[in-house]
């Protein structure tokens, strides 16, 4: 049975989850999601395979007719020489023109942003980003989310115990 992160003996991720932005579903109400490719250098791919990337503070932005992933942190590859990559450089996301036009239209609406949800390698070994169109939540919406999550946790615990409250 395959695990969540399929790592080989030497700790390298061949396919599976590299980084997840778990806070995004708390801070944003995610509407639709789509998968986008990433334009990376060789040292970035090697660093991603070690599983050390962070996308918690990043976002995507349509600029100059292209989609860019901004502020994603991919640490330097330690075994690389002087041709190593910059850790927080903007990275181009690969989407179709139709998808880009749709995303640009959604971002132009008030309060919407493009949030990266997951960074992973697909079955072919290519780096992909799952992005979603998010609308920022207010504080009372966040409290309601917490309340619902706690209630669902308590409800499942009560059902597991057989209803003996």
What can you tell me about this protein's structure?
The chain is of the alpha+beta class and 165 residues long. The protein has one domain (16-137): Small protein B (Small Protein B, Chain: A, Beta Barrel), CATH 2.40.280.10. It is built from 4 helices and 8 strands. The chain has helices at residues 24-27, 42-49, 97-108, 139-160; strands at 5-7, 13-20, 28-38, 59-63, 66-70, 91-94, 112-121, 127-136. It has an 8-stranded antiparallel beta sheet. The longest helix is centred in the C-terminal third of the chain and has 22 residues, at 139-160. The two termini are 37 Å apart. The mean pLDDT is 84. It holds the Pfam family SmpB. Keywords: Cytoplasm, RNA-binding. Its main location: cytoplasm.
Query: So how many helices?
Result: 4
CATH hierarchy: architecture:
Beta Barrel
Overall mean pLDDT: 84
Alpha carbon gyration radius:
19 Å
Family: Belongs to the SmpB family.
GO molecular function: RNA binding
Protein name: SsrA-binding protein
Keywords: Cytoplasm, RNA-binding
